[in-house]
Amino acid sequence: MHSDARVHRQTSGALERGYRGVAASRDLRLIAAVTVLGVLQASSDYLKKRKIDNARLNAEHLLAHLLDRKRIELYLEFERELTETELAPLRDLVRRRGEGVPLQHLLGTVEFCGLTILCDQRAMVPRPETEELVELLESRIENRESRIVDVGTGSGVIALTLAAKFPETEVYALDISEDALALGRSNAERLGLTERVHFFKSNLLQNISERFDLIVANLPYISMQDRQSLSSEVLHDPAIALFGGARGDELIRDLIEQAPPHLQSNGLLALEIGVGQSEPLREFLVEKNFHDIESKKDYSGTPRFFFARYG
Ligand SMILES: C[S@@+](CC[C@H](N)C(=O)[O-])C[C@H]1O[C@@H](n2cnc3c(N)ncnc32)[C@H](O)[C@@H]1O
Q: pLDDT band at 78, cuts 50/70/90?
């Protein structure tokens, strides 16, 4: 047998035994002899068997996190042997990833528009589509001193990235969930943005009397009947961050109705929406007298965002 193949098989076996919690001394010796490359291969095989997408990438992120390295630095250490002290926590992380715990929860952070954001079960894991929303907004924010409100702020990603990109803005970050607000505030502190990003508990815009140049929202938009089709990974997000009502777009409609008195003249409403909601929501925006209504697709070609002005 080719020596690499043997190492790989031994590592896989040793890690698998470890995952099942069996630690005979022979296995421990084997585990103590594994290299970074061997562990990456074994972990990635384990995750693949459990149908985790991008298994190898996930394994690299988890090992780099534990060794306090950049992922790319692992490539310079492929031959390094890992100790049992290093392997034990990795087994735990890989096992939990295999059970569908989101990678971002295991790492504790996520990269969003170039910022490192704390991420845990208190709020939704920020999605790449929402990064697209922020990117699309960049060219639409004309007044550098805009007053902005992010409704349903979760971990604070939209509010914080806009505040970071536009240093003269003042940003309100609203959520109905105390847990999400606590996480958002921690993120604001870490990023040094507490002076310009104000977190408030509010049911949509109910607790706010101010007017804004921009109202932006990525509200829950999944219908209750689609619950069954969600992966166990998505179900790690808080239910309050996922479900928008029986149809799915109820909260978005409520916000469209509440928005006009909170918008400056010609103010902008920016929305992230769910699959199949584009046409009915366009009609609703027209009905509520919004103008310059613009629908944008995400990178996968799904109509995902609305930009509309009022007044
Ligand atoms: C889809 S998550 C988005 C979180 C974050 N904006 C993001 O893009 O990652 C929706 C957020 O809306 C909040 N939410 C749900 N119902 C709400 C309501 N009635 N008023 C305000 N926030 C609400 C949830 O707590 C959750 O944090």
A: very high
Closest atom of ligand 1 to CA, residue 219: 10
The topology under which CATH files domain 121-310 is Rossmann fold (3.40.50)
Q: pLDDT tens digits for 19-65?
A: 443 333 333 334 444 899 999 999 999 999 999 999 999 999 999 99
- Residue 65 CA to residue 49 CA, distance in Å, equals 22
Radius of gyration of the chain (CA): 23
Which ligand 1 atom is nearest residue 125's CA? 9
Q: For residue 254, give the ligand 1 atom closest to its CA.
A: 19
| Ligand 1 pocket, residue 98 CB under 6 Å | no
The first and second tokens of residue 61, run together, are: 């992120």
Residues of the chain with CATH 1.10.8: 3-99
Q: How far is the CA of 8 from the centre of ligand 1 (A)?
A: 44
CATH of 3-99 among 1.10.10, 1.10.8, 1.20.1050, 3.30.410? 1.10.8
Is the beta carbon of 113 within 6 A of some atom in ligand 1?
no
How much is the mean pLDDT over the chain? 91
Kindly report the pTM of this predicted structure: 0.89
C-alpha to C-alpha distances, 138 to 134, 161, 180, 285, nearest whole angstrom = 6, 10, 25, 22
